[in-house]
Amino acid sequence: MRSPLPRAVLTRLETGRVVVLSVLLGALVGGLSILLRMSLDALLRWGSVLTGYSPPGTPGEGGLMMAFGEALPWGLLTLPVVGVAYTLLVPAAQGDAMTQLVRGYHTRGQWPPVVTQLRTLLGTGLAYTSGLLVGRDSAFTSVGQLGARLLGRVTRLDAVEVRTLTLAGAAAALGTVLHAPLAAAVLVAEVLYRRFEFEFEVVMPCVLAAVAGTAVYGLAYGFTPLLSFPEVGTPAAPQLLPLLLVAVVVTLVGLLSLMVGKAIPDAWTTGWPRPVLGGVFGLLTAVLAVFATPAVLGDGSGWVQLSASGFVGTEGGMQGIWRWLLLALGARLAFGGGVLPSVGVGGLLGAGLGSVLGADTALSTMIGVVAFLTVTLNVPLAAALLAVAWGGEALLPTALVASGLAHALSGTAGLLPSQVASRGQSGVHLGGAALLPDTVRFIPRRAPDAPAVPYDALPAQAAAASDAETGGRELYRRGVPPGWRGARLKLLSLPPGVEIVGIVRDGTVRLPRPELLLTPDDELVFLARPDAYAALEGLLRLPGA
């Protein structure tokens, strides 16, 4: 069977339309990310004045590898208020930015309204800059999705392009904040599914957008890796068992956090209990900052840098436990989502375990990062690529083993409720109702054996424009011929110039998947030249057709 896409769409793809749009979107998102970075930096300064504490930064963001100040109890009293505001701004039904991205794709482009996305961006920025367990990457993910919407305002995009470019915009934003464009592109294509599967159709647009976005962002803030690890190589034989134990323990701890989150009743995460629990979460964070350690403030990426450099030791394990507690209790309220909170928890746990077991600190920290990120987001390959982007190619074998082990032990568990198990369960690949080109016009159902007629409901001016785009082809709709009933679409033999672009079943238009079985009640939508379709009708009138 020929391609189910109209030839006009295929021509646009072949001439590089998606390539050009991906690069333009990446550059746009890179510029928006610069503005977001400036805004977050300004808010962080105010937040540190309010709480009296500034966590260590990362080399890639120009931060200092040390903490400043002591947490002020009176300043930390703002955290419950921010927790309430965050749960009110981030909708329970949509979740955080990453959850919105994944859910919107699987629902075939049903993204939240712009107002909802702006509210999510505002709530994420407030929570991050105040010190709650929200990663700065969540704010960038929102900006990436909004960048795709802006691009859609200046150029006409079909449904497939909107889905693809929205993912590409998120990849561009994540590439800027993680300082790892390739890892960000793979992460976006991989995070959609709980199993080790990819949305490979979007990988290249995501790569192009992420590279372009990082190039623009780097002009303003440089190209230093987000984290800078000491030079490491393949672990020596005596290190293998301790590092293996680090990977296993961090994986099991990550699974336990998911189990704790699932134990929270659904009724507590919606309605009036949601903002109440948001305030309780903020109060718990403040209490831990005062009576345990102020290191629980922030997303923890700066502490991972200190751990890898050998400045934390066994103390990092305790910090990781406190952060793990916050992530386990707050995940159902959209706290702790995204990439960097998992990086912080896993890195600190790995550093603490490595110090106890006598393993190399840098390796154990990175193994903790890879294992925990694999468990929470189901992104084993992207987690390994992040380790390579931050620590060098020598980490690749160790990172792949750690991520593979973590994924094998954790199975299909995950932190994102909008993930689906596999491509076959995604709404994009189920073949449900789909948007066909604007030239489609429905007409009353005809008898199955009656010849099809062209759609001629377009005005003359619109019809001329449509003919110019489709090369003089028209859309036809007819019932399934008797000889085709029960056959799979891939087995049909069509004359040159005739394509099946839709199946009308139960009142909805479905994509023509090759394995789809035709039923007597179906109707077929053809895109064909009039002479080619006349030839098809002639063949169907032959005996036995």
Q: Short description, anyone?
A:
The chain is mainly α. 57% of the residues lie in helices and 5% in strands. Strand 5 (498-505) and strand 6 (508-510) form a beta hairpin.
The chain-level structural class is: mainly alpha
Mean pLDDT: 86
> What distance lies between the first and last C-alpha atoms, to the nearest angstrom?
17 Å
Main sheet overview: 5 strands, antiparallel
Indicate the overall shape: elongated
User: In what order do the strands lie side by side in the largest sheet?
Assistant: 3-4-7-5-6
User: How many DSSP H or I helices?
Assistant: 21
Q: How big is the Rg?
A: 26 Å
Helix content: 55-70%
| Low-pLDDT segments, ≥5 res | 8-15, 432-446, 455-470
Task: Provide tags for this entry.
545 residues, mainly alpha, five-stranded antiparallel sheet, 57% helix
Description:
It is a single chain. The chain is mostly helical and 545 residues long. Helix content is 57%, strand content 5%. The chain has 21 helices and 7 strands. The chain has helices at residues 7-14, 17-51, 73-76, 78-89, 97-106, 114-130, 136-154, 159-178, 181-190, 203-221, 237-263, 273-291, 301-308, 314-330, 340-357, 361-377, 380-391, 396-410, 427-430, 460-470, 530-540, and strands at residues 53-54, 68-69, 453-454, 474-479, 498-505, 508-510, 523-528. The longest helix is centred in the first third of the chain and has 35 residues, at 17-51. Mean pLDDT is 86; it is low at 8-15, 432-446 and 455-470.
